[in-house]
Amino acid sequence: MNRIQNKILSLTGIVLFIMAAIWMTLTYYSRQTQEQYNAILQRYLRMNEVTGASQQTITDLNNYLIRPTPENLDQLERSKERLRQAKYDVHALRNGDNDFDLTSYTNLIDSLLEAVGRALMFQSQMVTNDSNEAFNEATRISRSISDMTLTLLDTELKTYDRFYRGIIERSTELNRLGIWLHATITFLLLLFAYWFALSITRPVQKLTQAAKELSRGHFDRKIEVSSNDEIAFLAKMFERMRLSINNLITEIQQKAQLEHELQQNKLLLQESRYRSLQSQIHPHFLFNTLDTLSKKAYLEGAGETSDLLASVAGLLRYSLRRMDRSVTLYEEVRVLRQYMDIQSARFADRLRFVEEIDDSCLYVQIPGLTLQPIVENAVIHAVEPMEDGGTITFRVAEDGDRIRVEIADDGPGMPEEKVAQILKGSAQETAGHTTGIGIGNVVQRLRLFYGQDDVIDIGSRPGAGTKVVLRLPKVRRNDADDQRTDRG
Amino acid sequence: MRKTIVILLGIIGAVLIWFTSVSAYKVFRADWRLPQTPLRQSAEYRLVLITRELETPFWDKVASGAREEAAKHGAMLEVWGSYNNDSDEFLKKLEIAIHSRMDGIIVQGLDTDAFKELVKYKAASYGIPVITVANDVPDSLRRTYVGSDQFRAGQMIARQLAEDMGPEGTVILLRDSGNAHFQEQRLDGIRSVLESYPGIRLQYAETQGTRERVIAAMQDLMNRSPEVQAFIAANANLTAAMVQEIGRRSRVQPYHIYSFDDSPDMQTLLREGLIDGIIEQSPEAMGRIATALMTDWLKGDRLPLDSNGYHTEIRLRKADDAR
Q: Which domain holds residue A134?
């Protein structure tokens, strides 16, 4: 991991390195310059030294000639030695331009030393005239040496003129370099520091943003930090926390929903229990009353009324049985007839009911209250709205390995879409069913009961009546339902 | 926006780095050591040419001839000297040359005791060969002389004079009071020719080298001999002042004026027609031959040198030719 500490250290390191490099370069440069200056000065000083030494020699010689003491002689010897040393030093300054002059120069020094020697020799031999002559010559030579020094210095200046100018130019250039270097380094460091600061603050900013989002309750946004340091680690942890919180919240929400549903279901259950209790109380009372009414009507000689009441009671009893229990087709037909009796009493001539029943087919099992809702549907849509009433035809016949049950009317029919809706089970139930069971319910139950989709079919066209055809298998694929006990 | 800033920063950075590196290159490019002009190892001999008339056309030619020859022989040659016939400075230079032990000294002869002293004793004691050039000093024990045969030069000028002027007339011979050897030679030469013309009268005028003296002497002479027809300056350095003085009195043209070429004014005077003829010497040849003889002698190729001297070519140049 590229840690922030490392980043800071590396920045500091780079800055230090640059500074050290510049410092070392400049130190090296100034040392070189110094050496160069020294070398130049050395040359001038050495040449000047010759002049000084030669003049000193003359002075000492003069002193000795005037007062020949051993001290003065010693002094003279020392200055002669100094002159020799100077000559040796100046010999090293030879180059192509001053070769000629320098040779003359060293020769002049030799001549001077010789003249000095001669003066000393004549002095020791007490030949004062010659000694003076030699001294004069030495003086002249010394003066020539001074002149020659000037000539040599002049040559030196001419030889190194361009070099000296180069040095001056370089020093001005150095100042300029200082300014440029300063500008460049400032620029680069600013850039680098900005970049560096950004690499630290940008992840922090992202993290801050993410934290703000979290605090606002937006737990669904991913936290992404692309850097490679502690902040990234922090962000990763943060992200994990966010996910955990998110999961917890989802869980809590689900639980709350479940709780809510449970509560609702409980309420519904209570309600339905209450209803079922209610509905159990009233029917029994109603049966007994209807029975009593029937008997009463019979006893009073109103046979037809008695039969009607009996039919109503029968129908009521039948409808109160548990619907998931299967019955035989025979029973269904019986209930259907009772229902038709009641409807016939109501519609009189307007309702014409035609039965074509093959009795051998009535053994087949069928869910309870299947036919009655279909017929009732036909009565509601095909007979009730018509002024002239209508005919309902009910047929039961054998059809291969199935029993074909057909309920047809001659009413206004319905469009195909409606048919499809009914078959899909999504049609809106029209109210007003006696038993509270709509055609959609019937369709579903039939399909569930037989485990087949093609058990019911509806044929209808607008203006051409409706024909509902049930094709019941003679043997059910699954007879398990039959084993259920009736608790009704 | 961001892209623009990045590009801008990039350009600024590039410019800064460029100028910095250019500046750094200039600073660090330089060589740290002192430039060494290579030593000429082949230079065996150190020769010096000393004259009293530095930077005159005549001596410049001598110097250039000498330098050329020295380069050919691989010798180093320096030209020292004084200006405007400064004898003291000249002698000082000569002494320095001796003290600094040159291998050979080529010198414009100076017919004085001091010069002879230096050449005879000093130079000999240091074992330095001396060759006189242009002006000879025979009794100075110089090795040899390289230059014009001054006697013959005098003869040539005298013959020309006789031819131009005719066999009769008065001639003024202007001479420097130094009695220099070369001057005496010239006068001898002139005399040797004009002796055979009895009609030509010679008048001698002696003066010191300064301008005022020359003018004074000329005035005196022309006052005394108004019938003078010709002038000969035995020393070229006197000619300019002489011509000027003549020109002050009358027109210069009718006079026959002759001189020698070893003075810077001569070519101008000749071109302007103020003088009628000069003896032209061969300065370059002098320099060349002197140097060649010196190096040969030092190498031991040519022993001994002819102490009578080696004469270079001379010719007479008339004003008509120069114009």
A: 4-159
Question: Which residue, A57, A49, A47, A50, is CA-closest to A139?
Answer: A57
Decide if A376 contacts A434 (C-beta within 8 A): yes
Q: What's the CATH fold of domain B46-148+283-313?
A: Rossmann fold (3.40.50)
Residue A167 domain-assigned (yes or no): no
Chain B residue closest to A169 (CA)?
B27
- Scanning the structure block, which residue is given the tokens 């339902």? A481
> B150-281: which CATH topology?
Rossmann fold (3.40.50)
Cα within 13 Å of Cα(A165), Cβ side: 6
Nearest to A96 among B28, B39, B97 (CB): B39
Taking the CA of residue A209 and the nearest CA in chain B, the distance in Å comes to: 22
* ipTM score for this prediction: 0.79
Write out chain A residues lying below 8 Å of B89, CB-based: none
Q: What is the pLDDT of residue A308?
A: 87
Instruction: Look at strands B230-233 and B256-260 and give their pairing.
Output: parallel
Amino acid, single-letter form, for residue B97: A
- Taking the C-alpha atoms of residue B90 and residue B114, their distance in angstroms, rounded to an integer, is 11
What are B164-175's pLDDT values in tens digits? 888 888 888 888
The tokens of A230 are what? 């502690």
| Beta strands A390-399 and A402-409, pairing class | antiparallel
The alpha-carbon gap from B94 to the nearest alpha carbon of chain A, in Å, equals: 11
Beta bridge partners of A326: A367
- The reply to whether residue B32 touches residue A163, judged by beta carbons under 8 angstroms, is no
Q: Quick one: CA dihedral B50, A118, A71, A90, positive or negative?
A: positive
**What contacts A146, CB < 8 A, 6 or more positions away?**
A51, A54, A55
Query: Can you give A412-433 as a three-state secondary structure string?
Result: CCCCHHHHHHHHHCCCCCCCCC
CA distance A81 to A63: 17
| CB atoms closer than 10 angstroms to residue B124 | 14
Domain boundary among A113, A138, A159: A159
Q: What is the DSSP letter of A341?
A: H
Give the torsion sign (CA, A45, A46, A52, A55).
Answer: negative
Q: Would the pTM count as exceeding 0.80?
A: no
Distance between CA atoms of residues A337 and A343, nearest Å: 10
- Which tens digit of pLDDT belongs to each residue from B126-170? 899 999 998 888 888 888 999 999 999 999 999 988 888 888 888
Q: How far apart are CA A90 and CA A106, in angstroms?
A: 8
C-alpha distances out from residue B276 to B161, B268, B270, B317, Å: 9, 12, 7, 9
Distant-in-sequence, close-in-space partners of A177: CB < 8 Å, separation ≥ 6: B20, B23, B24, B26, B27
